[in-house]
Amino acid sequence: MQRVAITGVGLVTPLGLTAAENVARSRLGESGIGPARAFAVDGHPAQALATVAAFELEPFLRFPKNYKFMGRAVQFAMRAAREAIDQSGIDPRQMDPSRVGIHVGSGQTGVEYEHFFPSLIMAWDAGREMDYKYLGGLPSHLIDRYICLRTLANGGLALLSTEFGIRGPNGNFAQKDTASAQALQAAYLDLLEERCDVAVAGGYDSLATTGNFLAYEQAGLLSHADAAEAYRPFDSQADGLVLGEGAGFLVLERWEHAVARSASILGEFCGGGSAMGANEHWRPAWNSETICRAAHQALDGACPDFAVASGLGTAEEDRAEAAALAALIGAGRTPVTALKSQTGYMGAGTAAAELGLGLLCARQGFVPPIAHHTQSGPCGALDLVSRAARPIERPGPLGLFLSCSWGGMVAALAARAISVAEP
């Protein structure tokens, strides 16, 4: 049977700009959530955001001229994908480019306030009617000339494939929270069916923007807690999520290909599954049965040694997911963590980033704790990892990674870590 190896992981999250920094901070249960500084939130009950630290990218690009086409989230993707490729030791330009695939989950790509509204304010000044005919002249100069390219849903896919010289099977997924999980599953199938030898897969997003903040606030989804304590999945004090941003990318290979080139194998991608909820209401649009269907597909009868829950941090969603996990793994028998408490809610970048981070932590022999978690809420039957990292005694632990979107899509991924001590 064909197996799929994971040979590279790249992470850019509010926890750090490298995979190593993410793992180190995750082990300590630290959080990248802090007071909102990306934009003013004065007068709003929600005060927290999880943002990525500034970094320089343009000097390190193979095609620096493409930098002007990259939105903030695509810059995260470029850095994370570069780290994953470098760690894997592959050079797509030295391979048959048609045998290297790329699948991407992309997130928020709409026009934000700062992109367009200043020009509208100028155009409609002095009591003019709100007609787009006044956008000519000076107001038009306030609109970024590259705005259309920067907001393309598949812009990241195009720029990544150009930068790394990848010309094999490809796809772009926009299924919100489950987008990068769908991308990883597509890459996995390409490798199983031998359409390529290597695949780069992951996702990226930036929800830490004015437009998203106002939309999620209106929907009643944001935590109102102090930034030092905000975002507590499965906690009795959980009161909502904190918007974040970031990217996660992995390099997957046919096992034989990785062994033949003596690659350092970090883990094995074991399977994926997805299901769609049919609830009439969107809170939540899925239920525990939906999650179980997706998880059973991914695990194919195996029992996970740990689980990384979606952990949205909202009471209704946490309750439904806890019921599913209890049915899947039993009460108190498998450690469960929720990494959004550390990174914030990263939208389409979440599934790949959580798989990459969770896999690397398990490879070092621990399950990271849920940040800010103090007391279990209605999910007490689960063995929640809180306060301190939990050691993993078993070599080659199998992890279950869940992601759930507001639209009803649920995705599950299964991956086995190759422990550092293993050959």
Give a description of the structure.
The chain has about 425 residues and is an alpha/beta fold. The chain has 2 domains: about 5-110 and about 150-415, Thiolase/Chalcone synthase (Peroxisomal Thiolase, Chain A, domain 1); about 115-145, no CATH class. About 30% of the residues lie in helices and about 20% in strands. It is built from 12 helices and 15 strands. The protein has helices spanning about 20-25, 70-90, 115-125, 145-150, 155-165, 180-190, 210-220, 255-260, 290-300, 315-330, 340-345, 350-365, and strands spanning about 5-10, 35, 50, 100-105, 170-175, 200-205, 245-255, 265-275, 305-310, 335, 365, 385, 390, 400-405, 410-415. It has an 11-stranded mixed β-sheet, with helices on both faces. It has a two-stranded antiparallel sheet with strand order 2-3. Helix 10 (about 315-330) links the parallel strand 9 and strand 10 (about 335). Helix 1 (about 20-25) crosses helix 12 (about 350-365), helix 2 packs parallel to helix 5 (about 155-165) and helix 9 (about 290-300) crosses helix 10 (about 315-330). The longest helix has 17 residues, at about 70-90. The two termini are about 20 Å apart.
* Helix-and-strand structural type: alpha/beta
Q: Topology as H/E string?
A: EHEEHEHHHEHEHEHEHEHEHHEEEEE
End-to-end CA span: 21 Å
Number of helices: 12
Any guess at the CATH architecture of the largest domain?
A: 3-Layer(aba) Sandwich
Q: What is the CATH topology classification name of the largest domain?
A: Peroxisomal Thiolase, Chain A, domain 1
Q: How do the strands line up in the largest sheet?
A: 5-4-6-7-1-8-15-14-9-10-12
Mean pLDDT: 91
Give unreliable regions as ranges: none
What is the CATH superfamily of the largest domain?
Answer: Thiolase/Chalcone synthase
Instruction: Summarize the biggest pleated sheet.
Output: 11 strands, mixed
Q: How many strand segments?
A: 15
Gross morphology is globular
What fraction of the residues are assigned to beta strands by DSSP?
A: 15-25%
Q: Supply the CATH class of the largest domain.
A: Alpha Beta
Domain module count: 2
Spatial extent as radius of gyration: 21 Å
Helix content: 25-40%
